[in-house]
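Quarterly update from the structural biology core.
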Amino acid sequence: MLNFDFYNPTRIIFGKDRLDGIDKYVPADATVLITYGGGSAKRSGLIDKVKTVLGNRKVYEFGGIEPNPRYETLVKAVGIVRNEKIDFLLAVGGGSVIDGTKFIALASCYDGDSRDLLKYGLAPIPFDVIGKAVPFGTVLTLPATGSEMNNGAVISYGHGKYPVMSELVFPKFSILDPTLTFTLPKMQVANGVIDAFVHTTEQYLTYPVDGKVQDRMAEGILQTLIEISETTVAEPENYDARANHVWSATLALNGLIGAGVPQDWATHMIGHELTALFGIDHGQTLAIVLPALLEVRREQKRAKLLQYAERVWHIESGSEEEKIDLAIQKTREFFEGLGVKTYLSQYGVGADKIPVIVEQLKAHGMTALSETQDLTLDIIQKILERAM
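Predicted structure, tokenized:
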């Protein structure tokens, strides 16, 4: 097992009817900015419920954070934070709203050009660059990204999607009430299952380091998602299925299963470019890239792919090659069974766009990806060809 530091200070408030936690954990004298997305939280009455719980605190609202939160939108909220002396943020929404709120929390305390915060990639922003952020909490409405219990965000700017990482933006608390997700469209639920699944594989399908606890936790999350996926999509008000979906998505990316083991993230980095260039949903891009990547990288990932085949998909017969083939096939069928297409051509993206995607990755410095930093642009081209 590799050396690691593990730190996660986020308080989780899980279950039905837990909005009262807002009053308990938002300071009584706080001036609060509620952030949200396209308006469903407003139309459903959730924002009004949140404001009721906030009581006599001074409250402002900022809506319109996009599914892939854009820098240009978020800086408008930064202006409100500074002008109105906001000292607590409350994100009401899914991962994009929470990601956007993390950036607002950082940028509001940064004296320079806030675009500087986009340049660090998967490395944490140094404390000598920014040493504080506006504290915030979350009310989760879409189980997918795990942003409600981690220190990362992804922000869109120009034609790129930029990771932003800082220990300063762990939420102070997150309210995870599965009933608040019941009205989600089926495709968003399916995308959320896939996002959580691939978050897990990015930390699991690498190479063995004898991280037995991390492996078993990852396998448990993957098996749970497989078990409940059809139900959570088809029966949106099945509380037990949705509760397991919500908690699986949180555990998939709160740092626990990735502590002390290698991590890949190439599927995500390639997927980000597909979203930026073609507007394909994040979860859908992961379903496109992962099976193709596993095919191309099967030798580098052989030991863990065999473990994945046997422990997650219960494939016990056949040669090693046959086990790996079937595990990748079952992964693709799992995504397709949720109604998500797994080839670029099915989204109207032809082979002529492969050079464009590769150039975007090059422009964003994504030239040595994977758990071993040997995933070059030439190999990425092969993955994209497989994904056609």
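The CA atoms of residues 35 and 269 lie 26 Å apart.
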